[in-house]
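Incident log, structure service

09:12 report received: a user says their structure output differs between two submissions of the same chain.
09:20 pulled the input from the user's history:
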Amino acid sequence: MLKQVIKFISGASTEDINAIVDAIKSRRNQIHTQKAQMFAVGDQVSFKGRYGRTETGTVTRVKVKYVIVDTGSARWNVPGSHLTKTEKEVA
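09:34 re-ran on a clean worker, output below:
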């Protein structure tokens, strides 16, 4: 199916491409919203930060599509679909 989509896009008009881009943006927004709502304040999470570095931290706020994560050295505004729950460290 993916090959068919790519083949269609390569021959698509500007209007068709704009419609495809709008559909992709809409779907991405739905995914971010669904995933963000799976987290709660206090959850331990990880995500890929700048330069591909894995960051770990604690959820401090859940917004509609984004989650605020405190890593101890910085606070990040991360799309929900970019986060993975991790086990809490036992001190």
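09:41 both user submissions now match this output. Likely a transient worker issue. Closing.
09:42 reviewer note: The radius of gyration is 17 Å. The chain has two helices and five strands.
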